[in-house]
């Protein structure tokens, strides 16, 4: 007996975009541009997106993962630009089960507290 599997190839047009889930948060790109002091055009060139895409992000906001990527690329943590970023729970719009051991709202607070509780390295001599 032989088992044969077939794989169906689905082709999508280059302009295909997955549907935006209504509960996925977005964040204003203007906040990042203000912090890094760049125009929309300069930003688009630096992050490797088209100008129309950058203007769409200005109009509709930046998705959670993009906010993370772009903030870090410019030397910030996303919650430094968008404080509400830290309150988002990706399991609400992704197909991921929530992790009961991981509470994103507490992780950064704990890390911040630990960082600021360390002795000053210049004072330790």
The CATH level-2 architecture of the domain at 22-84 is identified as Orthogonal Bundle
Q: How far from one another are the termini?
A: 76 Å
Percent range for β-strand residues: under 5%
Shape: flat
Q: Give, in order, the helices and strands.
A: EHHHEHHH
Indicate the percent of residues in helices. 40-55%
Low-confidence stretches: 4-10
CATH topology of the domain at 22-84: 434 Repressor (Amino-terminal Domain)
Largest sheet: 2 strands, antiparallel
How many helices? The count is: 6
Strand elements, count: 2
CATH top-level class of the domain at 22-84: Mainly Alpha
Mean pLDDT: 76
Side by side, the strands of the main sheet go 1-2
How does this structure look, described?
This protein is mainly alpha-helical and 125 residues long. The chain has 6 helices and 2 strands, in the order βαααβααα. The protein has helices at 29-36, 40-47, 51-60, 64-73, 78-81, 104-117; strands at residues 26-27, 62-63. A two-stranded antiparallel sheet has the order 1-2. The longest helix has 14 residues, at 104-117. The chain starts with 25 loop residues before the first strand and ends in an 8-residue tail after the last helix.
């Amino acid at each position: 007996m032989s088992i044969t599997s077939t794989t169906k190839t689905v082709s999508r047009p280059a302009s295909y975009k997955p549907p935006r889930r209504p509960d996925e948060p977005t964040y204003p790109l203007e906040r990042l541009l203000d912090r890094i002091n760049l125009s929309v055009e300069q930003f688009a060139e630096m992050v490797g997106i088209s100008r129309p895409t950058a203007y769409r992000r200005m109009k509709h906001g930046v998705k959670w993962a993009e906010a993370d990527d772009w903030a870090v690329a410019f030397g910030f943590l996303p919650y430094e630009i968008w404080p509400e970023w830290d309150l988002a729970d990706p399991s609400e719009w992704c197909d991921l089960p929530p992790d009961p051991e991981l509470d994103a709202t507490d992780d950064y607070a704990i890390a911040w507290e630990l960082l600021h509780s360390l002795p000053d390295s210049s004072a330790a001599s």
